[in-house]
Amino acid sequence: MSAPIIMRLMASSISTAKRAGVIIRDVLKKGDLGIVDKGHNDPQTEADRSAQQCIIASLTKKFPTVKIIGEEGCSDLNVCDDWLVTEQDESFLQHNCPAEWQDAKPEDFVIWVDPLDGTAEYTQGFVEHVTVLIGIAVKDAAVGGIIHQPFYKQPDGELGRTIWGLKGVGTGGFTPKAAPAGKFIITTTRSHSNALHQQALNAFPSAEVIKVGGAGFKVLQLLEGKAHAYVFATPGCKKWDTCAPEAVLEAQGGTLTNINGEHYAYNADVEHVNKKGVLASLGQNHSDLVEKIPAEVRQAVGAK
Ligand SMILES: Nc1ncnc2c1ncn2[C@@H]1O[C@H](COP(=O)(O)O)[C@@H](O)[C@H]1OP(=O)(O)O
Ligand SMILES: [Mg+2]
Ligand SMILES: [Mg+2]
Ligand SMILES: [Mg+2]
């Protein structure tokens, strides 16, 4: 008997994210990024388009009745065999399926795909900030996620690593580390700041602030003890930016919410923009962090 669908979705997404990572590296190697501006500070490249095609075509072929939403809109499902991933990560399938999702049906799922998170940084040469994000939601909740880092250098020189998390199972693909005691480090945007966002950061006057690209990479910084909290007090990132990072972070015991401490919903009908920003933490009292940001600042985020 085949494994429950959530386990097969996770195992297939792990293999597919790795293939998308190869596409992203290949586009950069060829050198012509094919940049299109989708809006202010919102570039799209050949790598975003091709990686999304690979992911959506591969997952649709295997799971034709599961709803899949990708950042780059509708994708041509007719892809070359080379982009059609038929494998699934067999080692992931060794885990037991959490009882809660054992009987979940294809129509209960939404897959949120960000084929390349950190596009601005990709075009500017900060390639270590780039991740491929595949998030698995069951009804409203972000439950499973893959964060693949195509340009991560393994100790043996191999490029790329794949981090996964599934609530009720845990995480894999990295070594969790607690952030240093005795100081407070915030990771935040380097390309989408504004005055209101700065006001939220000002609520933590003694914090060290690291500015990096991508929602996936910032959550990796929490997981690897490089920061205590991720603060983004402005609309701009979308459900495909936060679904996978939220699931991985929460499978590791952290929390990812809007700036008011409320979880976003990830069903197929939600508004794509995360209007009330992002606040994520690991090893902290999350509601204390919410309370530190003045209520008037929190109210103003996404108000207009
Ligand atoms: N104003 C915005 N317009 C478009 N995308 C945004 C915006 N703000 C954030 N994002 C998305 O959220 C990610 C995290 O934001 P930041 O790096 O600024 O913290 C970005 O890499 C980008 O995803 P993507 O690169 O996939 O388009
Ligand atoms: Mg984008
Ligand atoms: Mg993104
Ligand atoms: Mg993207």
UniProtKB/TrEMBL annotation:
Mg(2+) binds at residues 71, 114, 116-117, 241. GO terms for biological process: phosphatidylinositol phosphate biosynthetic process. Its EC number is 3.1.3.57, 3.1.3.7. The keyword Magnesium applies. GO terms for molecular function: 3'(2'),5'-bisphosphate nucleotidase activity; inositol-1,4-bisphosphate 1-phosphatase activity; metal ion binding. PROSITE patterns: IMP_1, IMP_2. InterPro entries: CysQ/Inositol_MonoPase (IPR050725), Inositol_monoP_metal-BS (IPR020583), Inositol_monophosphatase-like (IPR000760), Inositol_monophosphatase_CS (IPR020550). Keywords: Hydrolase, Lithium, Magnesium, Metal-binding. Its cofactor is Mg(2+). It is an enzyme of class 3 (hydrolase). It comes from the Eukaryota. It catalyses: 1D-myo-inositol 1,3,4-trisphosphate + H2O = 1D-myo-inositol 3,4-bisphosphate + phosphate; adenosine 3',5'-bisphosphate + H2O = AMP + phosphate; 1D-myo-inositol 1,4-bisphosphate + H2O = 1D-myo-inositol 4-phosphate + phosphate; 3'-phosphoadenylyl sulfate + H2O = adenosine 5'-phosphosulfate + phosphate. The keyword Metal-binding applies. PANTHER family: 3'(2'),5'-BISPHOSPHATE NUCLEOTIDASE 1. Belongs to the inositol monophosphatase superfamily. This is 3'(2'),5'-bisphosphate nucleotidase 1. It comes from Drosophila ananassae.
